[in-house]
Specification:
The chain is α/β, with parallel strands linked by helices and 273 residues long. Helix content is 35%, strand content 15%.
Length: 273
Amino acid sequence: MAPPVFRFAPSPNGRLHLGHAYSALLNARMARETGGRLLLRIEDIDGERCTPENIDAAIADLAWLGLPFEKPVLQQSRRMAAYREAIATLMEMDLLYVCTCTRKELAAFSDASPQAPRDPEGQALYPGTCRRVAHMFSAGSALRLRMAEAAARAGSLSWTEKGEPVTARPECWGDVIIARKGIGTSYHLSVVVDDAFQGVTDIVRGEDLREQTSIHRLLQVLLGLPEPRYHHHDLIRHDSGRKLAKSRGDESLADLRAAGVSADQIRMLLGFA
């Protein structure tokens, strides 16, 4: 029987913080306790924010923590051909359509429609403006999933969360974006394609991604990909209760290291002593 495979997959659009450290250390502990493998994946499809400097810094921070990731490290920016292939499969099923709506237009709709249905993150569901128009796909457009048709095709969906079944509800997200403008893929598509490619069996990540698992299970079924087990953990939060974010000025691991905090102290602080 093959050993379980875990992965830590940060998006290096800034320096890693304590929340990243907790998730990485939890993946490492669960891999060690189950005799599993531990992979590192750099989710850098956003080339503007995920700079080479941020990528190198993330790898250095994880090495400082002493995490035993296997090599080579997979970078999503080098996997675009695989994502295009998955998109072609969905296109052949007639499950995608081109969307040219701008963020400004979508924000205006949301502001003008306070009673519109909302997704689990509180955003107004896409109203389907482009679903009824035949646009040509270009770098200035996105691809959206025909959610109603996709969900009907996939049928009843669920996932295993910490050993217990959970019903998936992808319809609550509406027509999600599968390929973003100027990027050619999305987090949702890339993560399921790469988890299958790397043979990941156990996905351990923050609870802020729990609801998005419904989308991932839908894509896994549509693309004929294996179903991993899931474990969504509590988040490390700021004193105010919000989740940590470098964009909010929260201390990074590099800041803590520069202040003289050791890797052992970080482990102890997060409960991994």
